[in-house]
Write a structure and sequence with these properties.
Mean pLDDT: 94
Radius of gyration: 18 Å
Structural class: alpha/beta
Number of helices: 9
Low-confidence stretches: none
Strand content: 5-15%
CATH architecture: 3-Layer(aba) Sandwich
Number of strands: 4
CATH class: Alpha Beta
Helix content: 40-55%
CATH superfamily: Creatininase
Order of helices and strands: HEHEHEHEHHHHH
Number of domains: 1
Strand order of the largest sheet: 2-1-3-4
Distance between the termini: 28 Å
Shape: globular
CATH topology: Rossmann fold
Length: 254
């Protein structure tokens, strides 16, 4: 990773001088339980890798920086399992709002929040909406799996388990590719689980049920179907998709 792509490695003069014309990628993750077999930093590790790899891919075409990854997410639904560090809905919104507003006050005008945890999805959208109303800036938000959905379907990620699921075959494959030493064996098996509809994961309405995560022991499908080779393919496909989205967003700024 070129160190000049990392915001934290610039001094204040360098940051200020490039701010107005630079695309800033702000990765947001979580520290939360991922079943008995994956590290609690799964979302953090994954989104940081994707943001930095996508930035490196587009750095020759546009000015780009990656901020430090926000490690904590809105994850109260995982607290009963242990190993989870979560911010409540209102606290998460406020913390992220202040951090992004700091970037805007510092001169950055094009900011893309790249999300790696499902519980953050709606909140980052609200942060972007509210800040764009207040400040002369352009903000975009997306969860990485939504950007890469079509590419992941081409890799048949939706057939091996839930996409993106939680600590199932998809995420386990990615961690096996990124940090294999952190994957605990044997991985759990769950019979009878199905994949995802290739058309997308959005149902006509959303259901929340008390105790639903405990009922599935905190993971969505069968992690023993994961494979590091598949994980590398998923990550590469996602990096390409994220990079394309970042270029599109930046170039639309004129």
């Amino acid at each position: 990773m070129n160190p000049r792509l990392l915001l934290e490695e610039l001094n204040r003069q360098e940051a200020r001088s490039v701010a107005e014309k630079t695309l800033v990628i702000f990765p947001v993750g979580a520290i939360e339980q991922h079943g008995p077999h994956l590290p609690v930093g799964t979302d953090y590790f994954t989104v940081e890798h994707l943001a930095r790899a996508a930035a490196a891919q587009i750095a020759a075409e546009i000015p780009v920086l990656v901020t430090p990854t926000m490690p904590f997410g809105s994850s109260h639904h995982h607290l009963p399992f242990g190993g989870t560090m979560s911010l409540s809905t209102d606290t998460y919104y406020r913390v992220l709002y202040d951090l992004v507003e700091s970037l805007i006050i510092g001169g950055f005008r094009n900011i893309f929040l790249l999300n790696g945890h499902g519980g953050n999805h709606e909140l980052i959208q609200l942060v972007a909406r509210d800040l764009a109303l207040k400040h002369p800036s352009r903000l975009a938000t997306a969860s990485y799996w939504t950007l890469a959905w079509d590419a992941l379907v081409q890799e048949e990620a939706h057939l091996r388990g839930r996409l993106p699921g939680h600590a199932g075959a998809f995420e386990t494959s990615q961690v096996m590719a990124l940090r294999p030493e952190l994957v605990h064996e044997p991985r759990p098996h769950r019979a009878g689980t199905t994949g995802s509809d290739a058309r997308g994961f959005h149902a006509p309405y959303r259901v929340e049920k008390h105790g639903s995560w405990q009922n599935i022991d905190g993971y969505s499908d069968s992690p023993d179907r994961a494979d590091a080779g598949h994980g590398r393919a998923y990550l590469a496909a996602t990096v390409r998709s994220v990079a394309n989205a970042l270029l599109e967003f930046y170039r639309a700024s004129g």
